[in-house]
Amino acid sequence: MRVLIGGIGYLYLRDGSLGPAVVALLSRETWPPGVLVEDLSYGPVAVMQRLEDMKPPFDRLVLVGAVSRGRAAGAISVYRWTGPLPDETEIQARVGEAVTGVISLDNLLVVAGFFDTLPREVLVVEVEPQDEGWGEGFSPVIEAARNEVLAVVRQLACEGDVEVARA
Amino acid sequence: MCFKNLPIEFDAHGKPRLRSGEPDPFGTSRTIAASTDPALSRDKIEELLARNGHIKNVDFDPVTRVAGALAFHAVADLKAGTIVEARSMATLFRGYEVIMLGRDPRDAIFITSRACGVCGGVHSVTSAMACEMAFGVSPPPLGVVVRNMALAAEFLYDHPLHLFLLAGPDYSEAIVRQTNPELWERATRTSAPHAGLHGYRTVADIMTDMNPLTGKLYVEALHMTRVIREAYVLLCGKYPHPQTIVPGGMSTTLSTSTFNEFYLRLAQFFEYSKRVVPLWDDLCDFFYEANPAYKQVGARPKNLVDTGIWDHHDAYDATFANAGAWGDRRWATPGVIVDGELKTTDLHAINIGTEEFIEHSYYEGWDGGRFRTDPIGNPLSPYHPWNKETRPKPTGQNWREKYTWDTAPRWDRQAMEAGCYARLWNTAVAQKIASNPYIESTGQSLRLRLPAGSLPEMELEWKVPEVWNALERNRARAYCIPYTALVAMVNWVAALDLMKKGHTKVSTPFEVPKKGQQVGVGFWGAGRGWLTHHLEIQDGVIANYQILTPSTWNASPMDPWKRPGPYEEAVLNTPILETFSKQEDYKGIDILRTIRSFDPCMPCTTHIHTDHRVISREVTTCACGVDD
């Protein structure tokens, strides 16, 4: 079983840096053979090309990052990416953003999904940020959620498709 | 004499000085001739909009998440097929210049890199150059050469993106079939003159492979970004924000293996160029032959400005005093072209001719008296970047007063265009490039000799165009791929030669001055052209920092003399050639082609709407979203 755990986000944007911060912590842990932990915050197209290169491909991809969707701050959402893609106009928009520097979990799913490089199992852990302003450290609510995020990512990476639906 | 509008003259030794007898030498009250017929007054526009159903607001309103934002407002007369008003709006204040204040000058190398998600390295280098001028340190020859190779690689990432992912889709089957079906029909029966080189039998075949997402040229461009990103990372450690660019050179450890690995990737661009350039030649010529009015789409006077880039390792010493000399030795010659004529290649003249105005921008003015002269005594305007201060003030927001976060840079008080094509143009006409086997400046053209690979050796020649417009910007961009790749090649050869001779140092130690005042400027370039960072240090920390990017020039608003910026001027000159039977079908493709030909550095989600009702869909960096 080959598993890739990937964090996505920007450095020094407070809660927006959750993805890179989480994988930095996870990368210090001991993992079963076949599990790789990486910061995937280097652009959806480059990540898509990295996934394309993997021979054999990863069996499972666990992505983690802060995504603002209007939920309660600190809310953890976990879902299985089932691959619905937007229309081609929207996909082109996401590729355009990707090649001009936008780092985004949504864009990664769309770009890698369109070019068919995602592993067969993709699990996503999102956290609703409170503060994405310049700076280091998380807001208190994200700081409080961090250990739970780490636990969820560990569980998904090692056990895969668990009952994870959350608000 | 290179200045027509500034009160600066030159003595018998070519030394600039203020003209005598000018009571307010840099005052803005003096009239300056317009290069394009002025747009109608706002009152007249409002009257026309109210009276005529065929005169419409056409607003392009991009909103970006990270790297900046451009919105564009135009008023189109759909009956006459003309644009009667054009306004370019930068909709986001980013404040990098403010963030810099009070910091260690070395921080600027890493912080300003974040100004762009594509070309962070150019900001790092420009910043490092400003620092090394202020610190009094210069890189060893190999440091200069490797910097050149790295930044050539960065541009080779940028050029295919523009040609096939950002601007290119505007010329794809998907768009042309919708916006000009008669052109598509003609393309299906037009043989491509260079089919033997690029492999496409008809122009329609080219357009089909330019379709976004699925077209082979689109997908290949995406692949080429990977090839060159790998080359870049070999030298810079990571992309797009390198950690290896320092004042006094590079901090990378290099070996002959590094250079070999770099070359393997670079060589792919020689082969790529041999197909891409003739392909864009065929595409541009097809549009002209189909309708000569395409020569007017995006047209504006041949006014271009560039600081040059890629220093010669025998010439660059990082001093301001010698900037004229080392500038002239660059692999891309600095220069200013006014009405098609090369006015100067002297970096000192280019520098003192540069000013920024804020009459129509969301800023307030500044005193501007800190530096009356540059470090060698040449007169400086109070509007020069070394005198400018960034004071945001978003008030008076309307078309008559202030409408953008961009400033209005001018050279000799004229709206100038920045772009990699200015680099190409200056080098072609100046005939100052050092003798080398690959690139030849003829005075009217640039000859580019590509080595043999899987395809035979080939010479390409970019000729100074008769007209300057959207298609020529794109054509020149295509030629910038072989030009850039060959500059990398020249420097690659120089790097191996230096290694062979034992000159393996890539950096020079330096100290940050802790006391007193120092100034520096980085004269460099982005993939899109001009890039300068003007730095002032006071007692070891940054006292002022001013960044002037190519999009600052191109997206600029009107100036104090009510003359439009380059985007605005080019759109005002653009005829509406799109085919539509009902006004609500109008998609604005000619305006979009015009703006995108400049490669606006504003990754964006764009909403297009006309008169509050017609088009309201998302497009991103190409017009592929204007369909239903």
Description:
The complex is a heterodimer of chains A (167) and B (628). Chain A has 167 residues and is an alpha/beta fold. Chain A has a single domain (3-159), classed as HybD-like (Rossmann fold, 3-Layer(aba) Sandwich), CATH 3.40.50.1450. Chain A is 37% helix and 17% strand. Chain A contains five helices and five strands, in the order βαβαββααβα. A five-stranded mixed sheet of chain A has the order 2-1-3-5-4. In chain A, α2 (44-53) packs across α4 and α3 packs across α4. Chain A is globular. Chain A starts with a strand and ends in an 8-residue tail after the last helix. The relative contact order of chain A is 0.25. The mean pLDDT of chain A is 92. In chain B, the strands form seven sheets. A five-stranded antiparallel sheet of chain B has the order 5-4-3-19-20, sandwiched between helices. In chain B, strands 8-9-10 form a three-stranded antiparallel sheet. Chain B has one domain: Cytochrome-c3 Hydrogenase, chain B (Orthogonal Bundle). Chain B has 628 residues and is α+β, with helices and mostly antiparallel strands. Helices cover 35% and strands 17% of the residues of chain B. Chain B starts with 7 loop residues before the first strand and ends in a 9-residue tail after the last strand. Chain B has helices spanning 42-51, 96-100, 107-111, 120-135, 141-166, 173-179, 181-188, 195-198, 203-209, 216-236, 256-290, 323-328, 347-352, 420-430, 470-500, 550-554, 566-572, 589-597, and strands spanning 8-10, 16-18, 55-63, 70-77, 82-90, 245-246, 249-250, 304-306, 335-338, 341-344, 354-357, 408-411, 439-441, 445-450, 458-463, 517-526, 529-538, 541-548, 605-610, 617-619. In chain B, α5 (141-166) packs antiparallel against α10, α5 (141-166) runs antiparallel to α15 (470-500) and α6 (173-179) crosses α7.
List keywords for this structure.
heterodimer, A: 167 residues, alpha/beta, Rossmann fold, five-stranded mixed β-sheet, 5 helices, 5 strands, B: 628 residues, alpha+beta, Cytochrome-c3 Hydrogenase, chain B, five-stranded antiparallel β-sheet, three-stranded antiparallel β-sheet, 18 helices, 20 strands, disordered C terminus
